[in-house]
Amino acid sequence: MATPIYQFEQMPRASAHAGIRARARRERVAGEAPRVGVIYNPRSHGNQGADFDCRICPHVHIAQPGDRSALPIALADFAASGIDLLVINGGDGTVRDVLTCGSSIFGDDWPTVAVLPKGKTNALTVDLGVPVDWTLQSAIDAFEKGGRVRRRPIDVTPLGDSESSRVLGFILGAGAFTTATNAGQSAHKLGAFNSMAVGVTTAWGVLQLLFASRENPWRRGARMALRLGAQEAPMAHSGLGDPEWRQLLFASTLENMPAGVKPFGHLRKGLKLVALDQIKRRSALMVPAALTGKMPSRMRERGIHQISVPQFTLEIDDQFIFDGEAFPPGKYRIGQGPELEFVTP
Q1: Three-class SS of residue 109?
Q2: Residue 293: which region, alpha, beta or left (left: phi > 0; alpha: psi -120 to 50)?
């Protein structure tokens, strides 16, 4: 709930060994309004300069954590009060922080969640079909009359001397994706947000793949090792370029991406990833078709890999990006968190 990109060590993480606090249970009588807890991030792009009505009604409890360290306290208070609906007012980074801090409080017993798209990027709300003008009252009304969608966030756990922390979110990327995220920050400064920023950055990235030299960071990528499943089987490589490098890695549990891109082809459910080897320029011509969901022939032989997997291990020598956050080089287990139920219109 602060700057767009900074180091993983600076953010609070959920302890893998923390005790889960039981969420208070209560029986709602017929016609009773749901008890609502709202995490409001005043730093989110869509909230800047906007007043938020904190006097809506007694059953709505609003917390405005000044920084991430205050989030666990606010969420623990919500759990103790037995909220029925948790509303996250912010962008993808705010969602990541709330899910991360809430995992040691709610465990597998989360309240229903609603997200108001107030950030520079709102990939989750695009996936859920939430309109950009969705309000708190709209979310509360949808709790009773709207739809429900279930999603499991990505669970990132550092491996090594201590596996004591984890972070939950929805979009992870490395290599050219890290370069694209930095380019996306420039797009934000020019006034492009959400799907427009994704579209502009994607188009620029495709041009770099087609015309840049191998030394360009868009084409060079990052040195990384990908091992699939609990058995950590090495991921296949086409043999194009350096086999220790991948030009791009992108992973998500979302099913509908901003700007209508379909990086995973026909794959939709669960944890999915797409990886590009250091492909040749003529293979890069297939990337636009792949982004629209089409499946050109011999994709894997040409260095484009689309797979679905329960979990994988990432060992990387460069930063990677997780919901806008820069993680340091290292070895990580990438899995799936608890199944959450989201309110939709």
Answers
A1: coil
A2: left
| Alpha-carbon distances of 76 from 13, 18, 81, 88, 260, rounded to whole Å | 15, 13, 9, 15, 37
What is the spatial distance between Cα 80 and Cα 83, in angstroms, rounded to a whole number? 8
| Pair 78, 84: CB distance under 8 Å | no
Measured N-to-C along each axis, helices 176-189 and 194-211 cross at an angle, to the nearest 10 degrees, of 130
Q: Which helix (H) or strand (E) holds 314?
A: strand 312-316
Contact indicator for 9, 57 with CB cutoff of 8 Å: no
Is residue 212 within 8 Å of residue 241, measured between CB atoms? no
Sheet holding 248-252, edge to edge: 304-308, 272-276, 248-252, 171-175, 320-322, 325-327
- Which of 39, 17, 25 has the alpha carbon at shortest distance from 79? 25
Structure tokens given for 191: 């006034």
Q: Which of 2-11, 113-122, 207-216, 314-323 has the highest mean pLDDT?
A: 314-323
pTM summary value? 0.84
Residue 32 is predicted with a pLDDT of: 82
Residues 6+ apart with CB under 8 A from 152: 253, 270, 271, 336, 337, 338, 339, 340
Output the pLDDT for position 333: 96
What pLDDT, on the 0 to 100 scale, is given for residue 166? 87
Which two three-digit tokens encode residue 43?
């730093």
Other Cβ atoms less than 10 A from the Cβ of 9: the count is 9
Residue 204 CA to residue 208 CA, distance in Å, equals 6
The pLDDT tens digits for 225-263 are 999 999 999 999 999 999 999 999 999 999 998 878 888
Q: How many CA atoms lie within 13 A of 39 on its CB side?
A: 34
Token duo for residue 147 = 């739809």
- Which amino acid is it at 307? I
Alpha-helical segments (H) within 192-286: 194-211, 217-220, 281-284
In whole angstroms, give the CA distance from residue 320 to residue 99.
19
